[in-house]
Amino acid sequence: MSVRPEPLGMPLDFSTKVKGRRGKPPQHFADLNADGVVEVLTELNQPRYRAAQIATHYFSRFSASPAEMTDLPTALRDQLTERIFPTLMKASRVLSADDGTTVKTLWHLFDQARVESVLMRYPNRTTLCISSQAGCGMACPFCATGQLGLTRNLSVAEIVEQVRAAARSLADGEIPGGPTNLNNIVFMGMGEPLANYRAIMGTVRALVTPAPWGMGMSARNITVSTVGLVPAMRKLADEGIPVTLALSLHAPDDDLRSELVPINTRWSVNEALDAARHYFDVTGRRVSIEYALIKDMNDHAWRADLLGRKLNARGRGWVHVNPIPLNPTPGSIWTASEPEVEREFVARLRAHGIPTTIRDTRGSDIDGACGQLAAVEEEQPA
Question: Quick count: other Cβ atoms within 10 Å of Cβ 5?
Fold first, then answer.
């Protein structure tokens, strides 16, 4: 059976901390390409044109229930439910903030693994932050997800389903402000996206492919983050799909970054920045540098100067820095920088000519940092 075309997986196992169960999700429509769906329909003695009908329901009308596909024969709807529309995830908790315009959902997957997504509606756009893994193997000590360890990678369909569910919610007017479209996707939820390279690229292709076989989104409105998996960053540059790359740097010096982002002991700050510059050179897409500002840890003015010098050493106009006030997790020793320290950090970067914007943080009152809800339930297994 044909599955959605994907590149060969990365030859390295990037996991550093693995725990829990590893299930294989049942095959879903979103895992298949057009030929794969036609193959299923042929087995069910159905004409090929039904494939496009089903794709339209899923990618354009955001329906994952064959019962809603009323232009299909009733018997076929029942067969499709069994064959390619299994329930992959169920909402366990849904929390809202910002007058209902920020919605965080904790999903239980088919094997009770847990992931989170956050939907944010702004006056002129909507953004969905999605997870690519259940847990994370990168073990960054200030990150709630990193402290969970890695349970398993998500499948293409499990990632796409997070997007479809959000798009359906917006289209149905469930978020205050009336019905609207989903504009932006950021792979900044649970997990290290580039450690699940196959599924990430399968998802990106589903998002950018025109209707009926995809959601027809612009690659420019999709952001893929990484803590600095250098081979995967270089591979992503050659895909021919100009998504935005976001490098989670968090420190400009190797000594501190190796403490904050343990994968730095494998690929250094300079190697990660070189790969980021390579991404810009190949795609023409400006790279985002994500920098969580942590009080008395990485927020020193001299570190802002060092970061500015390192970025400028690789040229001008290729990068944008997003300092992010840390969203602390309960019981953590890590907390956000003081406002005046944050302002000085930003001022230093701008003095070096680096475009710098404090990234908006939402949902602090609903355990906004990805992994917090899952961490709470980790202590109370389903």
Answer: 10
Shared domain check, 161 and 53: no
| Domain span holding position 68 | 33-83
Query: Is the peptide bond between 212 and the residue preceding it cis, with omega within 30 degrees of 0?
Result: yes
**71-109 burial code (b ≥16 CB/10 A, e <16):** ebeeebbebbeebbbeebbeebbebbbeeebbbbbbbbb
Do both 98 and 243 map to the same domain?
A: yes
Q: How far is CA 277 from CA 157, 271, 280, in A?
A: 31, 10, 5
pLDDT surpassing 50 at residue 7: no
- What is the model's pTM? 0.92
Task: Report the percent of the chain where pLDDT is more than 70.
Answer: 88
**Rounded to whole angstroms, how far apart are CA atoms 153 and 169?**
25
| Residue 65, token pair as written in the block | 């229930």
Give the catalytic positions in this structure. Answer: 116, 370
Are 111 and 61 in the same domain?
Answer: no
187 and 45 inside one domain: no
DSSP structural state of residue 27: P
pLDDT in tens, 306-343: 999 999 999 999 999 999 999 877 777 889 999 999 99
